[in-house]
Amino acid sequence: MAVRKLDQLVDQVENYVECWKQFNQFVNLARGKKFSPEDENQFLETKSVLIQELELILAAVEVTSPTREEIHAVVGEAPSLRYLSELNEGTLRNLETQWHKIYISWHAILGQLKVRQRG
Fold first, then answer.
1. Whole-angstrom Cα distance, residue 105 to residue 17?
2. Using CA atoms, how far apart are residues 5 and 27, in angstroms rounded to an integer?
3. pLDDT tens-digit readout, 3-29
4. Which residues, in sequence order, are CB contacts of 81 under 8 Å at separation 6+?
5. What are the backbone angles phi and psi of residue 66, rounded to the nearest 5°?
6. How far, CA to CA in Å, does 106 sit from each of 20, 90, 103, 109?
7. Angle at 87 between CA 98 and CA 46, to 5 degrees
8. Residue 82: which of 41, 24, 49 has the closest Cα?
């Protein structure tokens, strides 16, 4: 992969990881039941970015974990902040566990890309 394309991919994955952090921040907002209609709109926008950017990244690099299905499942289990705010604590923890596995996997991918970038 050309250096410029690799640099762009690293930036893209870094931004993607930031979106995953935002997703978790929204889950915490929902847990505290302190969110506005604007937060709800931003949450939907974040989910859209997560799904769209996933396709762009997968088109550029082979990713075995997390799978597209795992990512779609986590995003799909969170249709809205209102919905999340009504879930019991155990269900929210399960969602967070799945989110964390994906988040860590993306950091591993980012690390691998940075090794290639420096190589």
1. 10
2. 33
3. 899 999 999 999 999 999 999 999 999
4. 26, 29, 30, 35, 39, 40, 43
5. -80, 155
6. 9, 25, 5, 5
7. 55
8. 41
Three-state DSSP state, 33: coil
Measured CA to CA, the distance from residue 60 to residue 91 in angstroms comes to: 34
Taking CA atoms, 26 is separated from 39, 46, 58, 80, in Å, by 8, 9, 25, 10
pLDDT band for position 119 (cuts 50, 70, 90) = confident
pTM over 0.85: yes
Instruction: Please report, as a single letter, which amino acid is at residue 3.
Output: V
> pLDDT exceeding 90 applies to what percent of the chain?
96
Extract the tokens encoding 49: 């970015």
* Mean pLDDT calculated for residue range 52-73: 96
